[in-house]
Amino acid sequence: MTETSHRTDTSDTPASTDFLPTIAFIGLGNMGGPMAHNLAAAGYRVIGFDLVPEALEKARAAGVEIAASGAEAVRSAASAPQSLVITMLPAGRHVVGALKGSDGSDGRDPVEGLLAAAAPNTLFMDCSTIAVEDSVAVRELTTAAGHRVLDAPVSGGTVGAEAGTLAMMVGGAAEDVAEAMPVLEVVGKRIVHCGPAGNGLAAKVCNNMILGASMIAVSEAFVLGEKLGLSNEALFDVASNATGQCWALTTNCPVPGPVPTSPANRDFKPGFAGALMAKDLGLAKSAIETTGIEGRMGLLAEEIYAAFAQGEGGTKDFSGIIELIREQSTPTA
């Protein structure tokens, strides 16, 4: 496993862009949009597509060229001496569907796939967080079409996407990771090569299982402390300097006050929404069941966040789970 924390300064356009690949960026939503913007600001020619008109307009205003379709974005990029295709889509079925396209047999208009539109041996990089089995399908489809593939899921939320400070977990051949590294360093700050294709997604699923379970534990501890008459500030001062220290406590603290930048101080306005945590824990649950490991904490975390995301928690920050814990706690006399 190799890692870099170096990052390209996106505030200055490179003196020469002659050797920069042209990037087709498919998926310009809350995460993909800022990533495409940062790449354009760094001097890359970025040709993007999204199904949402508002996303297209925001990307256009940020310097991204807009194509009429995903395939058209890939074809336009393929005309350059070197090209890279990045996908950032909601779920595995969207990634697989975009790669394959459709022949119209389903009664809808035919849609050309990204793989067919690409020049031979194009490097595809999927930054979506998808199921392990979907990642395998993406890898097999891409290589069977004569292309190369990286999986590079991200962590850091919309704030990290906008700042270009995402953590990126990359799976793929070392030479392909090296080729993509200048691009990765524009959108990310901490980049870890986790091994062969598929390992980036595996690392993301494992990491977010830890995060979800630890946020539940931290939230339960604060509610317990409140019941015992302990102030939030006192508990934070102890735990943040003792063995309870973790990111869920010191960066995304679920109570207002101790960490002024945490979402708890903004009525849980999301950096990472509860619905997304529920989705990622669902992927962890699938992986647990597929591998047959003993994963009771991960499965319980998935159950708790699935319930949280069904209500208003889906649109709140995932640290808002503390509100559900308070609601479900027995009132004291």
Uncertain parts = 5-17
**Tally the helices: what do you get?**
14
Which bin fits the share of residues in helices?
Answer: 40-55%
Order of helices and strands: EEHEHEHEHEEHEHEEHEHEHHHHHH
Biggest sheet character: 6 strands, parallel
Q: Mean of the pLDDT scores?
A: 92
Report the sheet-strand fraction.
Answer: 5-15%
Task: Calculate the terminal CA-CA distance, rounded to whole Å.
Answer: 54 Å
Shape: elongated
Radius of gyration: 21 Å
Structural class: alpha/beta
Strand arrangement across the biggest beta sheet: 4-3-2-5-8-9
Number of strands: 12
Give an overview in words.
With 333 residues, the protein is an alpha/beta fold. It has helices at residues 32-41, 53-61, 70-78, 92-100, 114-117, 132-144, 157-163, 174-187, 199-227, 232-239, 247-250, 274-291, 296-310, 321-328; strands at residues 2-4, 22-26, 46-49, 65-66, 83-87, 101-102, 111-112, 123-126, 148-151, 154-155, 166-171, 188-195. α1 (32-41) packs parallel to α7 (157-163), α4 runs parallel beside α6 and α12 (274-291) packs antiparallel against α13 (296-310). The longest helix is centred in the middle third of the chain and has 29 residues, at 199-227. It is elongated, with a radius of gyration of 21 Å. It starts with a strand and ends in a 5-residue tail after the last helix.
